[in-house]
Amino acid sequence: MLNCIDNSGAAVVECISVLKRKSAARIGDRIIVVVQKQRNFGPEASTANTGIANKVRRGDVRHAVIVRSRKEVERPDGSYVKFGDNACVLINKSGDPIGTRLNGIVAAELQKRSWSKILSLAPMHL
Question: Does the record bear Transcription regulation in its keywords (predicted)?
Fold first, then answer.
């Protein structure tokens, strides 16, 4: 189970498959997820008035990229980085993020894994 940190409309997703890897997924890996819980934008947020719309629904199968993980990751300088939760960003088949904003920090390991579009949307990377 992962938190979804973009504004696509998903709040919690479940990983069902890891692409191009036989082992567990790491930061920067592309995975296939099922949306388990939708984000609630409140009663005042309707698609006609504010433009905020859920782009995904509960039960949708989508692709995602892992941006934070609880499992520690060793960096080239010998230090380790570890986050408090597992988080992902939903993407389409071509690799572009579905949402237009990200809430929270992402790992800097995404840069060497060629996810620069996600890094540019993030408010901070660690």
Answer: no
